[in-house]
Amino acid sequence: MLHQTTRLRKGVAALFASYLFIYPWSIALIALDRVPVWGTWMGGVLLLLQGSLVGLWLIVNFGRWGAFASLWILFLSWLVEHTGATTGFPFGAFSYTEVLQPQIFGVVPLAIPFAWLLVVTTAMGVGELILGRENRPMAEDQQVSSTKVLMAAVFALLLDVTIEPFAVNINGYWVWSGTPDDIYYGIPLSNFVAWFVTSLLLSWVLLRYRAQAARQREAAYALADVQRDAAQFFWPWLPVTLYLTNLTMFVLVNLSRGQEVAALIGGLIMLALAFHWGLPRLARRMRDAEQESGA
């Protein structure tokens, strides 16, 4: 079992290293509009890579419950997207282009459910950061918290606000049909409402299986009569890191391609997270400095 866990952790590290290698090149090529014709498939590969990375990370930390959560998120997000692309509900009338390949049943690109897995898991990480729970042991999360579900859905929606103009007007992953409003880059309000509701559902699924893993872990510790070990939680910083790197990409690309409002929204999110993380640490350092000078 330990050998298998070690291999999975190495897999997470290898995928993350691949992501870090591709990431800066992706920003530069898209921002400068220098993506070659033969390279349009790279966007889908990057989404598949990140989704696989997050799924493997969930398995490492939550075992079979992490696998169940990943599979359910992949399936449910595909189902919602397939329904949306074929009926216009709940997002609004849209259709996927040929840019992202392959496509499941010729409708929804395979990369899209992996993108949902990425967004929901990373948004959950940011929500936990805001709630001050990002480094607590899994065994403390034995119940599904409605606050955490709501926070994850909010940050997933905020990320989508920066994703949509990027995906539609720059990368051309999908197109809106009918008569979408022009309030926000031609993207209908129904899309953001549907994103929020779908994110609520998928976040609940993720937390439900995480709670199952936590209860199982707690029972195992109780049976062995040992204390919980929070250090076994592998790379707790990964979801927040992926959220921020993606947000940074959308900000830079939107800004370079003339979509200033989307870039501004993303920048404000980054600024708020920076203040939330930095201000308490700055205050603590100042307090420590005052105590040292007083001594």
Question: Could you explain the architecture of this structure?
Answer:
- This protein has 295 residues and is mainly alpha-helical.
- It is built from seven helices and four strands, in the order H-H-E-E-E-H-H-E-H-H-H.
- It has helices at 2-31, 42-87, 111-130, 146-170, 189-224, 238-256, 260-294, and strands at 94-96, 103-104, 108-109, 174-176.
- The strands form two sheets. The protein has a two-stranded antiparallel ribbon with strand order 1-4. The protein has a two-stranded antiparallel ribbon with strand order 2-3.
- Helix 1 packs parallel to helix 6, helix 3 (111-130) crosses helix 6 (238-256) and helix 4 packs across helix 5.
- The longest helix is centred in the N-terminal third of the chain and has 46 residues, at 42-87.
Helical fraction: over 70%
Q: What spatial order of strands do you see in the largest sheet?
A: 1-4
Q: Whole-number average pLDDT?
A: 89
Summarize the biggest pleated sheet: 2 strands, antiparallel
Alpha carbon gyration radius = 20 Å
**Gross morphology:** globular
* Structural classification: mainly alpha
